[in-house]
Amino acid sequence: MSVNSYCLLCRRSIREEGSLAEMFYVDDCICSSCRGQMPYFPRTITVGKLKIEGLYLYDKLLREALIQFKEYNDEALYPLFLYPHVQRLKRKYRGYHLMALPSSAQALKRRGFKAVELIFSLLEMPVIEGFYKKSDVDQKSRSFKDRQLIRSQIALKADVNLAGKKILLVDDIVTSGATMQTGYRLVSGRADAVNALTLSYNRRFLPAWQRFLAEKVL
Ligand SMILES: [Zn+2]
């Protein structure tokens, strides 16, 4: 992928003007100031039997960028989310197939693109479109509790063959963990191995002292 010379978020030049740094290739698609404001706080989130790798807190600039991307349909932002992590994640999950947790058909229609799939397309891994929504009620029109219930109403397509495959469940935000857990229940037992990776996660998954630490360092 070619790197834009302008920050995808603030549109400023990625190379510091007039400095020696200008002569060097900067390997990112956002500027160092924006990158520094991303609440990168890698943690393993345990939900039931499932251990989920989480990269960012769903907060601050990451949250703003996700809202801009998903709710304001700014499709061009998709590379910035995983950009610094691509090589490591490709190595770690070599041999895995990606399965994205689904959004509602309405959200897809409103947006015109599959947000989670697009974010994780940077990993260039094989994708299995195996899940679908049992209930297609738009999440925005419901209360928080209803949304959690509806999001967990996902099912596996009948013709999906996972035998002998290693599956990486992916999502953009883990809020309660219910959706990931449902996805895990649907594929474990059919696949050889199941792991989970989320771009971001809710602060409530951190123990109190780590929440304090996150406030200090981010
Ligand atoms: Zn920037």
Textual characterization of the structure:
There is one protein chain. With 218 residues, the chain is of the alpha/beta class. It folds into two domains: 36 residues, no CATH class; 181 residues, Rossmann fold (3-Layer(aba) Sandwich). It contains eight helices and seven strands, in the order αββααβααβαββαβα. The protein has a five-stranded mixed β-sheet with strand order 1-2-7-6-3. Strand 6, helix 7 and strand 7 form a beta-alpha-beta unit. The protein is globular and about 55 Å long. The mean pLDDT is 87. The structure holds zinc ion. Zinc ion (ZN) binds next to helix 1. The site of zinc ion has 8 residues, from helix 1.
- Main sheet specs: 5 strands, mixed
Count of DSSP-assigned helices: 8
Counting helices, strands and paired strands, the structural category is: alpha/beta
The H-and-E topology, N to C, reads as: HEEHHEHHEHEEHEH
Portion of residues in beta strands equals: 15-25%
CATH architecture of the largest domain: 3-Layer(aba) Sandwich
| Unique ligands | zinc ion
| Helix proportion | 25-40%
Global mean pLDDT: 87
Span from first to last CA? 29 Å
Biggest sheet: strands side by side, in what order?
1-2-7-6-3
Low-confidence stretches: none
Q: What global shape is seen?
A: globular
What fold name goes in the CATH topology slot of the largest domain?
Rossmann fold
Specify Rg, calculated over alpha carbons.
18 Å
CATH class placement of the largest domain: Alpha Beta
Question: Using DSSP, what is the number of strands?
Answer: 7
Total number of distinct structural domains = 2
